[in-house]
Amino acid sequence: MNAGAPGPHRAGRPPSLSADQVVDAAIAIVDEVGLDGLSMAKIGARLGVGTMTLYSYVRDKEDLLDRMATSLFVDLEVPPGRGLERLAEYFRSFRRIALAHPALTRLLAGGRVTIPAVFDHLENLLTELQHDGVGPEESVRSFFSCLSYTIGFVVWEVPRSRLQPPEAYAAQWDELIRRLDPAAYPTVTRSARPHVGSVASDVQFEWGLGALLSGIGSSGAEGIAP
């Protein structure tokens, strides 16, 4: 994965490195130790260069973080389809890519949603949605509702069912409910019990995405399957 974002060109760059290599090294570190463990010194050590050399390829750490966030969008394309169903497939793909590098999703959750890559996708999707008959306001509301939902869901599901087997998460729920007093929590311990163990799963994501888009469709947007 590489960000492919334009950056400053400076004379004297060592020919053995590229900005994409710097970004890829940073992503590898973040995948291993998380965003809090990322430093320019660690990137330099991984690449075998001094820290100052990295600034020949990225302006500063903020530029690097923007490039890392951009990398989430490199392999995303606006899918075929019609109306809001097109959005559903787009955000399914977004989630799959985000789950491969979940720490990068925190960059978007923390505010990096105005990088050029987001605008490129926003322009493309809004254009296609409006061509499909979704109104201007509905198309904007739909995109950002799905974006915030998907980012939030990935942040929610990673520690629960990605950093451990989904079966372990379900077992944890079952153990918690087993300890509850049924008289105090009759609904949780009975009718809800079969379902709470899958609240960080593909089933939950699809249920929430479908409910979200159905709600948008019922508010007047066109082009969503019933």
Secondary structure elements and pairings:
Layout: H1 19-33, H2 40-47, H3 51-54, H4 61-71, H5 83-100, H6 102-109, H7 116-131, H8 136-162, H9 166-178, H10 186-189, H11 193-196, H12 202-218
Helix pairs in contact: 1-2, 4-6, 5-6, 5-7, 5-8, 6-8, 7-8, 8-12
Structural overview:
The chain is mostly helical and 226 residues long. It folds into two domains: 19-71, Arc Repressor Mutant, subunit A (Orthogonal Bundle), CATH 1.10.10.60; 83-218, Tetracycline Repressor, domain 2 (Orthogonal Bundle), CATH 1.10.357. It has twelve helices and no strands. The protein has helices at residues 19-33, 40-47, 51-54, 61-71, 83-100, 102-109, 116-131, 136-162, 166-178, 186-189, 193-196, 202-218. The longest helix is centred in the middle third of the chain and has 27 residues, at 136-162. It is flat. The two termini are 36 Å apart.
Give a nutshell description of this structure:
This protein is an all-alpha fold and 226 residues long. 64% of the residues lie in helices and 0% in strands. Helix 5 (83-100) packs parallel to helix 8 and helix 8 runs antiparallel to helix 12 (202-218).
CATH class of the largest domain: Mainly Alpha
The helical percent reads 55-70%
Proportion in β-strands: under 5%
At the fourth CATH level, what is the homologous superfamily of the largest domain? Tetracycline Repressor, domain 2
Mean pLDDT: 86
Stated plainly, the CATH topology of the largest domain is called Tetracycline Repressor, domain 2
For the secondary structure, the number of strands is: 0
Task: Please state the CA-atom Rg, rounded to the nearest Å.
Answer: 21 Å
Uncertain spans: 3-11, 221-226
Q: Oligomer, anyone?
A: single chain
Largest β sheet strand count, sense and barrel closure: none
